[in-house]
Amino acid sequence: MSTNDLTISSKKSFKSFLGKVVHNQLFIPLVALLLLVLFNLAADWFLHADTSFFQIVLKPSSTGSKILTGNLITIIDNASELALLAVGMTLVTSAAGGQDISVGATIAIAGSTVLRIVKGYSPDISGGKFAVVIICSFLLCVVVSAAFGAFNGALVAFFKIQPMVATLILFTAGRSIAAWINNNDNISINDERFGYFGNFIPGIAIPTPVFITAICLIIIALVLKFTNLRLYAQSVGINSSSSRLNGINPKIIKLITFIILGICVAVCGFIKVSRTSSITYAVIANNIEMDAILAVALGGNNLGGGKFNMTSSVIGAYVIQFLTTTLFRMKVSSSAISAYKAVVVILLIIMSSPFIRRWLDDRKSRREAARVTKAEAALEAAVEVAGDVAADVTADVNAGKESV
Amino acid sequence: MKKFMKTLLAGALALSMTMGLAACNGSDNKGGDTTQAAPTESKETEEAPATQGGNDGELIKVGIINNDPNESGYRTANVEDMKKVFTEANGYDADFFYSLKNEEQIAAAQKYIQDEVDYLLISAAGTSGWDGVLEQAQKAGIKVILFDRTIDADESLYEASIVSDMAKEGQQAVDWLASQGLDEYKIIHIQGVMGSSAQIGRSGALDEKVAAEANWSIVVQQTADWSEETAQQIVQSVIDSKESFNVIYAENDNMAKGAAAALDKANISHGVGKDVIIIGFDCNTWALEELLAGNWNYDGQCNPFQASYIDDIIKNGVKTKVVIMEEKGFDAKTITQEDVDTYGI
Amino acid sequence: MEDGAVLEMRGICKFFPGVRALENVDFTLREGEIHALMGENGAGKSTLIKVLTGVYPKDAGTVRINGIDRPIHIKSPQDAQNHGIATVYQEITLCPNLTVAENMYIGRTKGPFTNWFRMNRRALKLLDELDIPVNPKEQLGNCSIAVQQMVAIARAVDMECKVLILDEPTSSLDEQEVQKLFKLMRDLKAKGVGIIFVTHFLEQVYEVCDRITVLRDGKLVGEYVIEDLPRVQLVSKMLGKEFDDMADIKSGADVVVSDLNELPVYEAKNLTGTTGIKPFDFEIRKGEVNGFTGLLGSGRSESVRAIFGADRVAGGIVKMNGKRVRITRPLDAMKHGISYLPEDRKNDGIVGDLSVRDNIILALQVMKGFFRPLSRAQAEAFADEYIKLLNIKTASTDTPIKSLSGGNQQKVILARWLLANPVYLILDEPTRGIDVGTKVEIQKLVLKLAAEGKSVTFISSEIDEMVRTCSRLIVMRDGKVVGELKGNDLNQNKIMATIAGGES
């Protein structure tokens, strides 16, 4: 073994480390996040010399307690719903090999359900009674949207309808159903306690949706850890026929993922209506399904189903909100924001296209080829010096090299 | 990835197909899923005792093309008002069509023309593209009355148009704001869906004023597409970038509500005698209650009750081509519970 | 270029991350010859072919083709076609949702319009010539795998290629169909087409081929004229060692004599499937190896699927160790200790994107239940144990199974079912499409399992494999059990006669 070989192998280990980083699924969303941070730093430097994008301030609120404000808090706060949807969407994508485009409409239904219950109570009721009302409304909204999730799931699992087509039904009808639940009333809840869940609880400095999402994410993490959901969803998504022959019921698994998404949707709907204590059926959570799908894609997950990385999807969701907030700060017209997101989609699709992948792989193997021939030449030279040029010896050397 | 692209393509295809289907549905009368209310409603009218009908027993056949009642509280009130007036008891045989899409509305109008209705009542989703179908109606001897929304078509093509003057609404609000006598006006202007007549009218007055006065300035001008969430995000973003402002001019109540939620979150006081003036439009009951409580400052009415005007024109003939409805603006300082009950929608 | 050569590949190298799939491989194909490309799985046959057909770009080396002076660069499969290189792959790569004729002409029509009538007529003519019994307007997915394979060959033949690559074309064909294919190959050979024939069936190589090139571990072992290379030599070149495996197995074959007084491990009366098989009775005892045999489509796979509950079962009485049980879905069978290695490895066996580890633990995990996942360490330990036990060649336990060679994939599936610790193991074509070495290993494993007291049903389309391993053979024809052979009756001639339905 020559020193030449040693340097090669140390270089190789560095390169393989780099390769691992680049091939990690978290790479794309994290790089996107980094780009956004850099962009905002640059913007701070050139445009907003007086205030920093990243500044977080502790300010007293009207109730006397202090609350945190700043762009970063806004991002984490506003991304709460999206992060939850990304979780559900990732599972659905994995098992069903398609996406649920009805989540926005189902959020409208969930939110409308909550308001239907809450609107009947006057702001004067006691804390205890209020808690009961909230819990009831929340549970009902979970049941309702889980049922709608199950409806979607049943269409996909039992009737073998493509997820996008199956969910198109609720995508079209959902907002009408939401309006129907409340008789088309333009509702506004006066009880300021109802707003706690979408804003701040007095005395706590961090927005409530952040806690709600954190709790849900922890629950999902525990579910993934203590059940076989991940393995089952992935194997159903990759090969449903062989999953079935291994005793998994692919239909039930698909149904379960849709129901989980339904529950995520319920929580989102609850947060959304709590944020403003009102609902506009036609535009609440407008286009959020596209953001959720984008989060899954941005997380590097295959939208055709199969393997998934939940962390990556969740980071994807925060990246999207980061982008949105950045654009708002740049005073980009809010109707133009989707155009910027489209640019992200294009970049993503190009980056993960077979063409680019193959190009990267080719480069890699060509480098390896060059390395091998170089090493071979060096070794052969050494062998020649030894005066032995028999062909089988070269073969021996090759074999020896392989053990390196 | 190949699979992904396939799925994407399939999805796009499916989507476009269903859109196509929805459009077809639209043309054959009762409309797609969004219009479930319509068939049930017309059934109700059919079931109503016909004997009580119009004076000569002959019902006036009207086709009513409106925007989706889910669009806003304004629309809900409007649709309900129309349903209340155009009943068999009142001498009408009415059929309703709802859509937020111009082309679907036009298709529905064509259908009504084939059905030989007597009157075609239209609240158009978009301003253009109506000439052809209105000419057809004229040839067929069908009278057209526009309500709520105007269109870009020759005046001769319709009998009358009953509208809110959005520009006037905006002007009233801006005049009221000017009368507050602030030293400096730093305004967050939250717009509705760009290009809608409400947005154009309500933005116009403010834009003019800002251009004319030195101490009036716009901090940010953004569309929130009538959505409270987006409005909340817009105001939140201004607060986060530490820009100062003292007026929020939101082009409807829901967006004003979203903006107020963002202010509440950041502990910025708003309302009568507070740091930030909040202006909304449409006069939702709950919005007027906010005014009554002093949390908001001004709400401009956008009168959704055109049905009685139309009824009057059909039964008593056209007096003026363009009927502008009376509209009020409410100041938090002077509003009464009675106003809330009368004008809230 | 060498005289008479149609294709010359020199110094071909191809690397995948962490694997040297091909290193300095030379290959020469002459006009009008059938050239066998042999090697164990992972030897580099498939990679060499994929380089030749432009699926993979090569990393080094030159490819020359008759009629072009300079080395050519094959950029894509389309490009390969344009150079007159046509391929029929091991796994069918046609579109099941198109018709037979469309599949034959897809991607080859000129201009934006297609004359459907002419296309169907041409297809019909060609299919008739090749004696392929299928209507060109039939949807391909509705045809049997054998017919699909033949359509793929017809497509390649129609392209008037100079080089025809047949990658395991015979693995899903029965004897008659193989003969038809060989006739076709000889016809093409007479027309001067060079044919590269990749197969695992040694007999077939010696039946049709002129030359053999042997690869091992991505390197060239040598090129031989067929007369100079006896079978034993060929096998030893492929394996890289000198021993007679066939003899090895035979010596262990006469183990299994089971105790007839014991209750059968599995017993079915009047088991009725829903996939076109007649109700049948079946039983297997402890430590017994039995086999199902019959022509393609005789119902042998359908029978074992019915036993496992893989397809809906319509009726029948099933007992295990004398106790009545209900098996209507795979999970029931698994819970009663039945394992099933399916025939179609790619579609029913592997979960392609999942790691080797997840693939190994899958069945055990499902049996343990949804709420009791194995810990990472446990899973890792199981995977390592079985990788070592079955000598699975994989870079790590995290490697996706789809990047393994066919034989190693099969071993992973075997590992999965062994880990489930069954009492009764059904192996449907476990040796299909894998190399000689692994075939032998699997047969040995079957006998070892039987010796340990497990019951095994072993199905193979190679009758000699069945004769070597099974003590009892159930013969099927047209969805019906037509005979049961054991003892002295277990020989090739008797089996053939029973399958054919002579005077058995």
Mean pLDDT of chain A: 83
Which CATH class of the largest domain in chain B?
Answer: Alpha Beta
Tell me the radius of gyration of chain A: 27 Å
CATH-level-2 architecture of the largest domain in chain B: 3-Layer(aba) Sandwich
The tally of strands of chain A reads 2
Oligomer: heterotrimer
Number of domains of chain B: 2
Helix content of chain B: 40-55%
How can the largest sheet of chain B be summarized? 6 strands, parallel
* Parts with pLDDT < 50 across at least 5 consecutive residues of chain A: 1-8, 387-404
The percent of residues in helical segments of chain A reads: over 70%
Keywords:
heterotrimer; A: 404 residues; mainly alpha; ABC transporter involved in vitamin B12 uptake, BtuC; 71% helix; globular; disordered N terminus; B: alpha/beta; Rossmann fold; 6-stranded parallel sheet
Structural account:
The complex is a heterotrimer of chains A (404), B (345) and C (504). Helices cover 71% and strands 2% of the residues of chain A. With 404 residues, chain A is mainly α. Chain A has a domain at 71-337: ABC transporter involved in vitamin B12 uptake, BtuC. In chain A, helix 6 (127-157) packs antiparallel against helix 7. Chain B folds into 2 domains: 20-158, Rossmann fold; 166-303 and 331-343, 3-Layer(aba) Sandwich (Rossmann fold). Chain B contains 12 helices and 12 strands. Chain B has helices at 2-27, 37-47, 73-85, 102-114, 131-139, 166-178, 197-212, 228-240, 253-265, 285-292, 307-316, 337-343, and strands at residues 60-66, 92-98, 119-122, 143-148, 160-163, 185-191, 216-223, 247-250, 277-281, 298-300, 322-324, 329-331. Helix content of chain B is 44%, strand content 18%. A 6-stranded parallel sheet of chain B has the order 2-1-3-4-5-11, sandwiched between helices. Chain B has a 6-stranded mixed sheet with strand order 7-6-8-9-10-12, with helices on both faces. Chain B has 345 residues and is an alpha/beta fold. Chain B is elongated, with a radius of gyration of 22 Å. With 504 residues, chain C is of the alpha/beta class. Chain C contains 18 helices and 19 strands. Chain C has helices spanning 45-52, 77-82, 100-105, 116-129, 145-158, 175-190, 202-208, 231-239, 245-251, 300-308, 330-335, 345-349, 356-368, 376-389, 406-419, 436-451, 463-469, 492-500, and strands at 5-16, 19-30, 34-38, 60-65, 85-88, 163-167, 194-198, 211-216, 219-225, 266-273, 280-284, 289-293, 313-320, 323-325, 338-341, 424-428, 455-459, 472-477, 480-486. Chain C has a 6-stranded mixed sheet with strand order 5-6-7-3-8-9, sandwiched between helices. Chain C is globular and about 75 Å long. Classes of the chains: A mainly alpha (404), B alpha/beta (345), C alpha/beta (504).
